[in-house]
Structure formats: structure tokens, C-alpha cells
From TrEMBL:
Organism: Sinosporangium siamense
Record's GO cellular component terms: cytosol
InterPro entries the record matches: DNA_helicase_DnaB-like_C, P-loop_NTPase
Gene Ontology biological process terms in this record: DNA replication
Highest taxon of the lineage: Bacteria
GO molecular function: ATP binding; DNA helicase activity
Domain SF4 helicase stretches: 22-288
Pfam families attached to this UniProt entry: DnaB_C
Protein name: SF4 helicase domain-containing protein
Amino acid sequence: MMHLGSEYLSETLDLIKARAAAPDDSTAMPTGFEDFDALTAGGLRPGSLTVIASRPGMGRSTLMADICRHNALAKGRPVAVWTFEEEAHDFTVRLLSTQARVARHSMLSGALVEDDWTRIAKARGQIEAAPLHLSTPSSLTMAQFADEAAELVATRGVRLIAIDGIHDIRPERRRDLHGRKDGTAVQELKTLARDLKVAVLVTSHLKRAPKQVVDKRPHVDDLRDSDAIAYGADLLVLLHREDGYGQESDRAGEADLIIAKYRHGPCATITVAFQGHYGRFIDIPRNAGQG
Ligand SMILES: Nc1ncnc2c1ncn2[C@@H]1O[C@H](COP(=O)(O)OP(=O)(O)OP(=O)(O)O)[C@@H](O)[C@H]1O
């Protein structure tokens, strides 16, 4: 317990002044999406827990990878990724495809031209040089994860920890497999973020939209263990693509990042572009649709 006295308030005001003097030096980890970073004062804050949730196949693994790639490759900030959703090889193909801008299906089928190989070679060098650490365990308990994360923060200076699949972290005890599993994980991840002073980013599933419902936009109630995530997350992003339902859509190629909860500011919906062939989301160019 501490008294909110003059010394503590001076320190806090010094931090605010330093940020005002050099807004680009924010300790937040940027997402690379201009409107998102503007809304969140620079991105994902150290000590905070961000949850990206979507219905199946909407691209939440892609969005998580985009944020990690932006930090590690574009900004040179150390990032650690755990994924239960894909093999290391698949993650690497996705990364190479995005970075080289060579379609993922071409890389998998081998239908590549000379220029593709040149771009892949350049991307390979950029990925090799980046402070990006990847782990693809088939199974992991929260305690094992916490130990690995602490080690990476201490030895590699990791500032962003990302986990693709919060539901796949195993509880310590078998009897926790049912019931409060995700809720417990959320609380433990939040504590970890605060203790290690890093930004933690996780993905979570949303229930499928009922077939008869026309407006498929997701809601907080669609989260598995919605209360725990809604209370525990500092930032909750519901990812939605109208064209992800195989129907004709006049919003083809667009994706909504619905900020359903933001502890430090207003909620909003940010629209970005989805390029599935390159496995990435990008800002929509400012002049798109004009003229
Ligand atoms: N080569 C490609 N060209 C176009 N779209 C692609 C390609 N490869 C994947 N996609 C699209 O990317 C989306 C899947 O991306 P991602 O794996 O990030 O989604 P997810 O929400 O994490 O999926 P899941 O629910 O299966 O875990 C799908 O809509 C898929 O159609």
C-alpha cells in the first residue's frame, strides 16, 4: 500500500510530460494500423492484456502475426510468439509470404518465378535479423509458459508476448479442464503481463453465428467464457469480415477491428484491408475510393 503523495504524483506527471515531448518514444507496442495506434496512444501497453477474438477462419492468427511482424521486423522490438494453431513451418511460410509479398498458395505449390525467389531471399534476411522468437508446443501448462516467458524477457529483452490460442494453454490440474479454465488463464496472463511489464496479446475463439442471423457481426457475448475475458482484458478486439461467410458482399476485402473494450479510452470500429493471399491485414490507403 502506498500513499498517493506528492513524490508519486510528480513521477506520474513527469511520465506524462516525457510522452508529450516525444510521442514517438511511446513504450507501447504499435500494431502498425494507423487509426488503431492513434486510438490506443501508440498500441499495446506494457503490463496490459489484449485479446483478439473472431469466429473461425476470419484471420485472427493472421492479425496476431501481423502485429508481431510489425514490431519485430519493422520496429526491431523483441517479440515472442507461442502458437498452438499451426506448425513452425506454416508460421514461417506465412511470414515469408507476407514479408516477400509472394502469395502463400504459390509458395506451397512451388509455382514461383525468378522475381519471387529474389523477394523471398530478401525477406529471409530480414526475418533472420529480426528479434522474433517462436515456439510451437503441442501442449503447454500455464506454469511452463510463465517460466519460458520470464526467461525470454530476462535474456532476450522481449517486450511483446503473443499466444495464438488461449484455450490451448493447459491448466495445472486435470480437474480444472472443465469450468473455469479460460477465466483462470485470463487472470494468470494479466498477472504475468504486469509482473514482467510486457504487452501480452492472445487470440480466442468466438462461437459460430447462428445460420438464420443475417447480421453476423460478433458481440462480446459470443466469447467462450465471455465474462472472464470481458472483465480481464484491457483491450478486446473482435475481428469481423463480411466476406468471410462466402456470400456476396459489397465490402469484399475489408475487415472490421471492433474494439469492444478499451480500459484507457473509447471503443471504436477500425476498418482495414484483408489480403488473404499474402496472409496480412493492412491499412486502407487514405485516397482509396476517391476521384
Ligand atoms: N492463399 C490464400 N489466399 C486467400 N486467402 C487465404 C489464403 N490462405 C488463407 N486464406 C484465408 O485466410 C483466412 C484464415 O486465416 P487465419 O488462419 O489467420 O484465420 P483464423 O481466424 O486464425 O482461422 P482458424 O479459425 O482456422 O484458427 C481464411 O479466410 C482463408 O480463406
